[in-house]
Design a protein that fits this description.
Blueprint (H helix, E strand, L loop, with lengths): L8 E6 L6 E6 L5 E6 H5 L6 E2 L1 H23 L6 E11 L4 E12 L5 H14 L1 H5 L5 E7 L1
Parallel strand pairs: 3-4, 6-7
Antiparallel strand pairs: 1-2, 2-3, 5-6
Length: about 140
């Protein structure tokens, strides 16, 4: 029977949206605390300050890479390496998160490009984070490296 795993993060925010600031802590892994600000979210990213969209991109690229790796292995073409980038677009006015562009490059010995593309797309559709973000347009560019 599947076991439910709960991962926890927390955020503390001080002040109003525009001039306030906060921090997000990765509670489960205890890997660290990251600063947050509206400026990093709505204008140019400030070095050392993250945004919810960057964190979503990290989660999506990690989940996609893991899903794709498993699907390639189940296809008897396990990857040597997978590199995935998730670019999350955010409209600070209206619209919020407007899209996610996944780009993946993988080294997969013995696979034909048509099979690679099919599995890459299937991984995009079945990755748990993609499913959670189903209300957002997700694009994929996949290439063998």
């Amino acid at each position: 029977m599947p076991r439910t795993v709960v991962s926890t993060a927390s955020t503390a925010w001080n002040g109003d949206l525009i001039s306030g600031s906060g921090s997000t802590t990765l509670e489960t892994s205890q890997l660290g605390t990251m600063d947050l600000s509206w400026k990093a979210r709505s204008e140019d990213a400030e070095q050392g300050t993250t945004s919810p969209e960057e964190l979503i991109g990290a989660a999506h690229s990690a989940c996609y890479s893991m899903q794709f790796s498993n699907m390639l292995a189940e296809n008897d073409t396990p990857p040597t390496s997978i590199s995935t980038t998730a670019k999350v677009s955010f409209n600070a006015g209206e619209g919020g998160i407007t899209g996610i562009a996944l780009t993946v490059t993988a080294q997969v010995p013995g696979i034909e490009d048509t099979d690679f593309q099919r599995l890459a797309e299937e991984a995009k559709q079945t990755c748990p984070v993609s499913k959670a973000l189903a209300g957002v347009d997700i694009t994929l560019e996949a290439s063998l490296g």
